[in-house]
Amino acid sequence: MSTPRRALVLVDVQQQYFSGLLEIQYPPHEESLPRITAAIDAATAAGIPIAVVQHTAGEGAPVFAPGTPEFELHPEIQNRRTDTWKSVVKQYGSVYADTDLTAWLHENGVDTVTLVGYMTNNCILGSAVEAEALGFTTEVLSDATGAINLANDAGFADAETVHTTLLALLNSNWAAVGSTDAWTTALTTQKQLPAGDLGGSAAAGAARATSTLSSSPRQ
User: Fold this and answer.
1) Domains assigned to the chain
2) Mean per-residue pLDDT for 46-73?
3) What phi and psi values does residue 45 have, to the nearest 5 degrees?
């Protein structure tokens, strides 16, 4: 098993997600932000490249409008930022779509992209899925990402359900999902973060469903 050649990608850790309608709910940003900064500090100590991504909805947009305070990076991120970081502004969910991030990753010999930031239910999901066709291995840090409550004509899911369900989905096929502490250990030991697979996840899911059904009270 080869040593991962990693880059840490900070996805949209912008002020837009710290208050108002899009405020991250689970894990609460008071918990996830310190995990993001811990990942930054670990990556810096290990000398792995870092890219910082900001989302734009265009000038004058109601959210993510350049020139507004909400567009700016959270101060905890901005204060750690250095000239060595790659800066990316995107307009789609995926960090790769219509940006030069892929080229930068190739230039730096990266084969494994670690995603932290927001939201699990949008840009983290979209980026992890697109990475498969681009040939990158993806890692998602479960406690350094976050989701919001969602409701529409298709149904309702609270933020915890959204976050945990999507992480289980990602870990079944598109990404290795783990905590920041587990990732830091993998970084230090130059190991891969353990990932699930679709077959194993399906088998475990079937077993859990059967166990739940058998333990349910009979009417």
Assistant:
1) 6-215 (3.40.50.850)
2) 97
3) -65, -35
